[in-house]
Amino acid sequence: MDCIFCKIAHKEIPSEVLYEDDSVMAIMDINPLCDGHVLVIPKKHYEDIYEVDKETLVHMYDIAKDLNKKIMAKLNEPGATFSINYGDKQEIKHLHLHILPNFKAKATKTHEEVYKLLSGD
């Protein structure tokens, strides 16, 4: 399969991982729409929201909720948007949940700078 997120999940492509367990990963988006743009991806390939099982989808949101607290605190953001695209709006045909703190503001930092901020405890 030639899916970039599958390659990331199988460690064939490096990524900045903020969270990982047996079924999901949370990684920095390399083309962030805003500072702190994070993607939560299932390790198993699901093309879209209609293919994924309920357990995995709920787990993705639970991880996003937990990570978002840290992201908002570290970036001093008062809120965030969670988003899952579908169909023509889906740039990569592998289910992924976007965490977008202050998505109305353009990114002012590189994803590497934000990763260092978020990964340092």
Structure characterization notes:
This protein is α+β, with helices and mostly antiparallel strands and 121 residues long. The protein has one domain: HIT-like (HIT family, subunit A), CATH 3.30.428. The protein is built from three helices and five strands. The protein has helices at 4-9, 54-75, 111-119, and strands at 17-20, 24-28, 38-42, 80-83, 97-101. It has a five-stranded antiparallel beta sheet. The radius of gyration is 13 Å and the shape is globular. The N and C termini lie far apart (36 Å). The relative contact order is 0.24. The mean pLDDT is 92.
In round numbers, the mean pLDDT is 92
Q: What is the distance, rounded to the nearest whole angstrom, between the alpha carbons of the first and last residues?
A: 36 Å
- Most strands sheet: 5 strands, antiparallel
Class from helix and strand fractions? alpha+beta
- CATH first level: Alpha Beta
Rg result: 13 Å
CATH topology: HIT family, subunit A
Strand order of the largest sheet: 1-2-3-5-4
In CATH, the architecture is 2-Layer Sandwich
Number of helices: 3
Q: Percentage of helical residues?
A: 25-40%
The domain count comes to 1
State the assembly state of the protein chains.
single chain
Rough outline: globular
- The helix/strand order is HEEEHEEH
Full CATH superfamily name:
HIT-like
Portion in beta strands: 15-25%
> Could you tell me the number of beta strands?
5
**Low-confidence parts, pLDDT < 50 over ≥5 residues?**
none
Short description:
The chain has 121 residues and is of the alpha+beta class. It has three helices and five strands. The protein has a single domain, classed as HIT-like (HIT family, subunit A), CATH 3.30.428.
